[in-house]
Write the C-alpha coordinates for this entry.
Amino acid sequence: MTKFNLLLIIIFISSSIYSQVEKNVEINIDNLSKKWEMVDLINSKKTAEELDEIKSMLEGTYIEFRNDSTFTFGFVFDLEGHWELKENVIYTKDRRGENKWTIYTLEKEKLIASRNEATQKIIFKSINKI
Protein backbone atom coordinates (compact mmCIF):
# COMPACT_ATOMS: atom_id res chain seq x y z
CA MET A 1 0.00 0.00 0.00
CA THR A 2 1.38 3.37 -0.95
CA LYS A 3 1.57 6.34 1.38
CA PHE A 4 -0.99 8.10 -0.78
CA ASN A 5 -3.53 5.25 -0.40
CA LEU A 6 -2.92 5.16 3.34
CA LEU A 7 -3.48 8.92 3.55
CA LEU A 8 -6.75 8.59 1.62
CA ILE A 9 -7.95 5.87 3.99
CA ILE A 10 -7.11 8.01 7.04
CA ILE A 11 -8.94 11.02 5.55
CA PHE A 12 -12.00 8.88 4.73
CA ILE A 13 -12.17 7.39 8.24
CA SER A 14 -11.70 10.79 9.86
CA SER A 15 -14.44 12.39 7.77
CA SER A 16 -16.80 9.50 8.52
CA ILE A 17 -16.24 9.87 12.26
CA TYR A 18 -16.60 13.67 12.06
CA SER A 19 -19.86 13.49 10.08
CA GLN A 20 -21.33 11.07 12.66
CA VAL A 21 -20.41 13.40 15.52
CA GLU A 22 -21.94 16.34 13.65
CA LYS A 23 -25.31 14.54 13.34
CA ASN A 24 -25.77 14.40 17.10
CA VAL A 25 -27.67 17.24 18.73
CA GLU A 26 -27.66 18.37 22.33
CA ILE A 27 -29.89 16.34 24.61
CA ASN A 28 -32.31 18.98 25.84
CA ILE A 29 -36.06 19.59 26.14
CA ASP A 30 -36.33 21.50 22.86
CA ASN A 31 -34.61 18.79 20.80
CA LEU A 32 -36.67 16.03 22.41
CA SER A 33 -40.04 17.80 22.15
CA LYS A 34 -41.33 15.93 19.12
CA LYS A 35 -43.42 12.94 18.24
CA TRP A 36 -41.13 9.90 17.94
CA GLU A 37 -42.22 6.70 16.19
CA MET A 38 -40.57 3.34 16.88
CA VAL A 39 -38.88 2.08 13.70
CA ASP A 40 -36.33 -0.52 14.78
CA LEU A 41 -34.74 -2.41 17.66
CA ILE A 42 -31.19 -3.25 18.66
CA ASN A 43 -30.76 -6.43 20.68
CA SER A 44 -27.76 -8.69 20.17
CA LYS A 45 -29.44 -11.45 22.20
CA LYS A 46 -32.28 -11.87 19.67
CA THR A 47 -32.22 -13.44 16.22
CA ALA A 48 -33.31 -11.42 13.19
CA GLU A 49 -36.57 -13.39 13.14
CA GLU A 50 -37.25 -12.65 16.81
CA LEU A 51 -36.54 -8.95 16.27
CA ASP A 52 -38.90 -8.87 13.28
CA GLU A 53 -41.64 -10.48 15.37
CA ILE A 54 -41.16 -7.97 18.22
CA LYS A 55 -41.11 -5.05 15.75
CA SER A 56 -44.36 -6.24 14.18
CA MET A 57 -46.01 -6.37 17.62
CA LEU A 58 -44.76 -2.85 18.41
CA GLU A 59 -45.67 -1.36 15.04
CA GLY A 60 -47.23 2.07 15.44
CA THR A 61 -45.75 2.63 18.90
CA TYR A 62 -44.83 6.25 19.51
CA ILE A 63 -43.92 8.66 22.25
CA GLU A 64 -44.63 12.37 22.01
CA PHE A 65 -42.71 14.68 24.33
CA ARG A 66 -44.02 18.24 24.67
CA ASN A 67 -42.24 21.38 25.92
CA ASP A 68 -44.73 21.73 28.78
CA SER A 69 -43.37 18.49 30.36
CA THR A 70 -46.38 16.40 29.28
CA PHE A 71 -46.13 13.37 27.02
CA THR A 72 -48.24 10.74 25.31
CA PHE A 73 -47.11 7.14 24.91
CA GLY A 74 -49.06 5.35 22.22
CA PHE A 75 -49.10 1.57 22.06
CA VAL A 76 -52.40 -0.30 22.32
CA PHE A 77 -53.98 2.81 23.81
CA ASP A 78 -52.62 6.26 24.64
CA LEU A 79 -51.13 6.98 28.04
CA GLU A 80 -50.82 10.61 29.10
CA GLY A 81 -48.35 11.76 31.71
CA HIS A 82 -45.45 14.01 32.64
CA TRP A 83 -41.76 13.78 31.80
CA GLU A 84 -38.55 15.20 33.17
CA LEU A 85 -35.07 15.25 31.63
CA LYS A 86 -31.95 14.81 33.76
CA GLU A 87 -28.74 14.67 31.70
CA ASN A 88 -29.28 11.79 29.25
CA VAL A 89 -32.23 10.19 31.10
CA ILE A 90 -35.93 10.90 30.64
CA TYR A 91 -38.17 10.05 33.60
CA THR A 92 -41.83 9.53 32.71
CA LYS A 93 -44.80 9.14 35.00
CA ASP A 94 -48.31 8.16 33.94
CA ARG A 95 -51.26 6.31 35.47
CA ARG A 96 -49.51 2.96 34.94
CA GLY A 97 -46.35 3.95 36.80
CA GLU A 98 -42.92 5.41 36.22
CA ASN A 99 -40.33 4.64 33.55
CA LYS A 100 -36.74 5.61 32.96
CA TRP A 101 -35.59 6.12 29.35
CA THR A 102 -31.81 6.19 28.87
CA ILE A 103 -30.80 8.12 25.75
CA TYR A 104 -27.83 6.73 23.80
CA THR A 105 -28.11 8.86 20.66
CA LEU A 106 -30.08 11.95 19.77
CA GLU A 107 -30.02 13.34 16.27
CA LYS A 108 -32.41 15.83 14.72
CA GLU A 109 -34.58 13.04 13.29
CA LYS A 110 -33.44 9.98 15.30
CA LEU A 111 -33.54 8.89 18.94
CA ILE A 112 -32.01 5.70 20.33
CA ALA A 113 -33.05 4.85 23.89
CA SER A 114 -33.76 1.96 26.21
CA ARG A 115 -36.54 1.70 28.75
CA ASN A 116 -35.87 0.95 32.40
CA GLU A 117 -33.18 -1.72 32.78
CA ALA A 118 -33.66 -3.31 29.35
CA THR A 119 -30.60 -4.09 27.26
CA GLN A 120 -32.73 -3.76 24.13
CA LYS A 121 -32.45 -0.34 22.49
CA ILE A 122 -35.34 1.21 20.62
CA ILE A 123 -34.75 3.34 17.54
CA PHE A 124 -37.29 6.11 17.01
CA LYS A 125 -37.63 8.49 14.10
CA SER A 126 -39.03 11.97 14.40
CA ILE A 127 -42.49 12.39 12.90
CA ASN A 128 -42.85 16.14 13.43
CA LYS A 129 -41.90 19.11 15.55
CA ILE A 130 -44.51 20.23 18.05
In short: Residues 3-23 form the longest helix (21 residues). The two ends are 52 Å apart (CA to CA). The first strand starts at residue 34 and ends at 42.
